[in-house]
Amino acid sequence: MPRSVLVVDDEPHIRRVLRGYLEADGYRVAEAATGSHAVALARSFRPDLVLLDIRLPDFDGLEVLRRIRGFSDVYVVLVTARSEEADKLVGLAAGADDYITKPFAPREVAARVRAVLRRARDTGLATSRVAASGLTVDPDTREVTVDGTPVQLSALEFDLLLALARAPGRVYSRRQLLEKVWGGDFFGDERVVDVHIRSIRRTLGDDAGAPRFIGTVRGVGYKFVAPAGADR
Prior knowledge:
By secondary structure, this protein is α/β, with parallel strands linked by helices. The protein folds into 2 domains: 118 residues, Rossmann fold (3-Layer(aba) Sandwich); 103 residues, Arc Repressor Mutant, subunit A. It has 8 helices and 13 strands. It has a 5-stranded parallel β-sheet with strand order 2-1-3-4-5, sandwiched between helices. Strand 6 and strand 7 form a beta hairpin. It is globular.
């Protein structure tokens, strides 16, 4: 079954060009010009990835993202203008996985989509379930529980948590985490790692000052601090 992409943009020529490039790469493509249509298609079309413009005519892409995160952990890549730095960080905190800045080359967007979906298919991570200090991370079902209670992470947050949990005690720099989780061809801001770590901690109920799961190594990066055991 071909992978699928939902392109959300209110400019018809942008949707048309992106559709052409993505279909040439073998993806099924659906289009939405409004926020309400985007949310509806995210439910019915069930894409593997959403390319989501922030500026939409009815409600903005950040609200679309919040609504989608209420029922799906689909990969979401925001499309922003260069002046929308605050929107990028807010979007990442709300559950976006990545962003692309306008103006962009369609080939760049197609390459980013390939990179994200390749990561989703081949994370290079072991498939055994990690269990550590009340936390379980199951790669087969992509489910996370804390003290027996299920918690909801975005697809990229899950990949990032699993990458850390599979190597307890190992310190990863931001760049190493970008290469391991986002892919070696990521060319965005390293701060996306910090934003996603904060979101994971918030979801897990973890305290950066007295971490139960993810510790910060100042000037270096992050590590999984709970001694992990995996069902093998």
